[in-house]
Design goal:
This protein is an alpha/beta fold. Helix content is 43%, strand content 19%. It has a domain of 209 residues: 3-Layer(aba) Sandwich (Rossmann fold). The radius of gyration is 20 Å and the shape is globular.
Length: 346
């Protein structure tokens, strides 16, 4: 049975699976982290006990499982995760189920895990990432933030998170690893910055508004201002839109026809969900916006980019790696060498 495409609200859980199924971004990113972590974990071997990992903006925790799966670690992993969404981070949320399943199936050698719901941009990550009897302060070897900085209220929220992690969470040899899209013209994130929902007053949604057009630039500038080391890797991933027709593009402009579209062409419906994921706006609200940020303008811009790239939308991805200000320089240089070795071929 084909999934409904909500038109009066944007529901992340109905849209994101289609995006994930149509992109190679997770596969490429996981491969990079596998190569990187294989080289980095031995450098952190002075610590005793399991490798302690934080996943900020964890979603269902499938991403952190992908990043760690296949990475050899005799020490195992302790995972602490947090997300603002109750569907993922509540006591019966998807994140706990995914981590429990990965632990049971031994996909990842998880010694222990916990998940808490809360706002990662509020400067309280120590509380969100501490389990009972376990103080998170200065204890993490690895902290991941994947595609979540877009949803800070403002750039200062990104800066708060960066300071919170580097000052309060990381161990002396701990690393913060962020993965987000940059915004060059003709990219996924450029379209998101131009047409994405920027205000919670625009629609009913279970997803925080897209407020930060290029979080990679905010991270770069903040680290430079504080003198904190920053290592960056760049690669191009793709979101595929196979088999789009003139009729599909015409139907995409009329949300009240989406139910018929879904019955007529499941492939077209999957493409539509991927297009809606870019902007994270409720279709009816989007259609009613007749400005240069509205649905008609967005579809015209997206079509031009997708057809100009033979059926895909480029994602200009950045992996940014940083650490504490007092981290040993020799360790940073070893991390830099590991990152360069993990860089995908262009």
């Amino acid at each position: 049975m084909n999934r409904e495409i909500p038109i009066a609200e944007y529901r992340y859980e109905e849209i994101y699976p289609s995006f994930k199924a149509g992109t190679d971004e997770k596969r490429i990113t996981s491969q990079i982290f596998h190569r990187f972590l294989t080289r980095v974990l031995p450098l952190q071997a002075r610590r005793q006990g399991p490798v302690k990992v934080a996943d900020i903006g964890c979603g269902p925790c499938d991403t952190i499982v992908d990043y760690l799966e296949g990475v050899a670690s005799e020490r195992g992993f302790i995972i602490r995760a947090t997300d603002i969404g109750g569907e993922y981070a509540s006591s019966d949320g998807k994140a706990r189920m995914v981590l429990a399943q990965a632990q049971q199936q031994r996909r990842v050698p998880i010694a222990d895990f916990s998940v808490q719901q809360g706002d990662s941009f509020a400067g309280a990550l120590v509380n969100l990432l501490s389990a009972p009897g376990d103080d998170a302060r200065g204890s993490f070897d690895l902290v991941f933030g994947s595609h979540m900085l877009y949803h800070a209220d403002r750039e200062s929220g990104v800066e708060t998170l960066l300071d919170d992690v580097t000052l309060n969470l990381l161990s002396g040899a701990g690393l913060l690893m962020l993965c987000h899209g940059a915004s060059p013209a003709g990219s996924f994130n450029n379209l998101r910055a131009r047409f994405g929902r920027r205000s919670t007053s625009l629609d009913q949604s279970d997803t925080p508004a897209v407020n930060i057009g290029d979080p990679t630039l905010v991270v770069h500038d903040h680290c430079a201002a504080r003198g904190v080391p920053l290592i960056e890797l760049s690669f191009i991933a793709r979101v595929h839109f196979p088999g789009l027709t003139d009729e599909d593009w015409h139907e995409f402009a009329h949300p009240r026809r989406y139910a018929d579209l879904t019955r007529r062409s499941p492939q077209a419906a999957e493409n539509l969900r991927r297009l809606l994921f870019v902007t994270e706006r409720a279709p009816l609200e989007f259609e009613g916006d007749k400005s240069e940020r509205g649905l008609d303008a967005y579809l015209a811009a997206a079509r031009e980019v997708i057809e100009g790239n033979a059926g895909y939308l480029p994602l200009a991805e950045r992996i940014q790696i940083t650490c504490r200000l007092d981290t040993e320089r020799s360790f940073i240089e070893s991390v830099r060498a590991a990152a360069e070795a993990a860089q995908p071929a262009t």
